[in-house]
Write a structure and sequence with these properties.
- Helices cover 25% and strands 15% of the residues.
- It is of the alpha/beta class.
- α2 packs parallel to α4 and α12 packs across α13.
- The longest helix has 15 residues.
- The chain is globular and about 60 Å long.
- The N terminus is likely disordered.
Length: 414
């Protein structure tokens, strides 16, 4: 997932279970709801408002899904067959390929249409003249674009790890796969291991691809329907930050669809930050639709999403946010861990919002993103332990987590 925006709207999250109390409940296994919200007597399946000893139930009562975000991208260069295979080896329920199109209309797995950050294209003199400036969702970006490369040319590139703090040893060694190859891998591994391994493609920047005459949706449907995936029970879920393409997909398929919910960041107080044009699904900009992602997570917005999608994929700060502390009143955030840097470790958790409950109330599942192990990405309450973050979100009833480290997500799952 990715998003671009900064501050436009400020959202006050409804108070729910105080964080300090929440962790105490997790530790001793006590219910997270007041007695008045619990249901006595025998029940069949999850009951709205009931919270088990492990926390609030998922929508179906089943364990939360572990979705390998771009494969096991914490260990290997993202969106490679090796990263997807590693994720499957580690036990992921789904592998997630972001989908973009080549010049000749083949769907490949890349995080963005731009290739510079995740491949060695900048080191290949033969492709130097392909670097150009294009407008992507209203923003001018200079890079190498997959849409200017044929599949044959894409196969000459090699993937690299875009996060400098992660292992760089496999840079320049792994190819960029097609979506068909990812589907084939999931099906072959499912047969080999005797368990269903799902594929969770994201249509990246559909408006951008439409403008190039490289519409993603029909190409995607052709591949997943050819795989025999045509029903809500099929091991495939399609996601998008845009709305119009999800509505188009709903008119063509019964497979599960997910509306992604983006933001740029949170401010010092933990309020969601949004900045145009990334404050809303991009086709809203062209249509002069004033709604933002904050509107989509309102109760009315969720009810509309339910008309065309099966779930939502919000950035995790929409569920539990975190604020900075300025105890000495100097106007600067306090360096809580004393390392001379200001990052997530210098924030403290706020009470959870009602988003998971609100989504469940209208029948939408919730798959939150993105969970990572590096200490600098963990709020101070988690004490450098990523398992504590997962346990908090599992206790709140999320139905799935997108993780760069699926093994950690699985170990923490109840």
């Amino acid at each position: 997932m990715s998003s671009s925006a900064h501050r436009r709207h400020r959202r006050q999250f409804p108070r729910a279970v105080p964080t300090a109390v929440l962790f105490g409940l997790l530790a001793v296994g006590l219910p997270l709801a007041p007695a008045s919200a619990q249901v006595s007597g025998p029940v069949s399946g999850p009951v709205p408002g009931q919270v088990s000893a492990e926390g609030r139930p998922t929508l179906t009562g089943q364990p939360a899904l572990v979705i390998a975000h771009r494969g096991a991208s914490g260990y290997l260069p993202e969106h490679t067959l090796e990263a997807y295979s590693k994720a499957i080896e580690l036990g992921a329920d789904f592998i997630e390929p972001d989908v973009v199109a080549t010049k000749d209309g083949v769907l490949i797995a890349r995080h963005e249409p731009m290739l510079g950050a995740t491949t060695d294209v900048a080191d290949r003199a033969a492709f130097a003249d392909k670097r150009r400036t294009r407008k992507v969702d209203g923003i001018d970006i200079t890079d190498w674009f997959a849409s200017d490369f044929t599949l044959e040319e894409i196969k000459q590139l090699r993937a690299k790890q875009p996060m400098p703090e992660r292992d760089q040893a496999m840079n320049g060694k792994l190819q960029i796969p097609t979506l068909q190859q990812v589907i084939d891998l999931a099906k072959s591994k499912s047969a080999e291991l005797g368990r269903a391994i799902g594929v969770y493609p994201e249509t990246k920047h559909p408006s951008f691809h439409n403008d190039l005459g490289l519409k993603l949706e029909d190409r995607l449907l052709e591949l997943i329907h050819a795989a025999g995936w045509t029903e809500p029970s099929s091991p495939v879920i399609v996601q998008s930050f845009e709305v119009a393409n999800l509505k188009y997909l709903r008119s063509k398929t019964r497979v599960r669809l997910v509306q992604l919910i983006a933001a740029d960041d949170v401010d010092k107080d933990g309020a969601i930050l949004l900045q145009p044009p990334g404050d809303r699904p991009y086709h809203f900009v062209a249509a002069q639709d004033p709604r933002t992602f904050l509107d989509l997570v309102s109760k009315a917005g969720l009810a509309e999403i339910k008309t065309y999608a099966d779930g939502i994929g919000p950035w995790k700060r929409y569920i539990v946010s975190a604020k900075q502390i300025d105890a000495d009143g100097d106007g600067k955030p306090d360096d809580l861990n004393g390392d001379g840097k200001i990052d997530e470790r210098d924030r403290v958790l706020l009470p959870p919002s009602s988003l998971v409950k609100d989504a469940h109330d209208v029948g939408l599942f919730v798959h939150a993103w993105t969970f990572r192990n590096e200490p600098r990405r963990l709020v101070s309450d988690f004490k450098d332990d990523p398992a504590r973050e997962y346990k908090l979100f599992y206790a709140l009833g999320v139905d799935g987590v997108f993780s760069d480290f699926p093994d950690t997500a699985l170990k923490a799952r109840p």
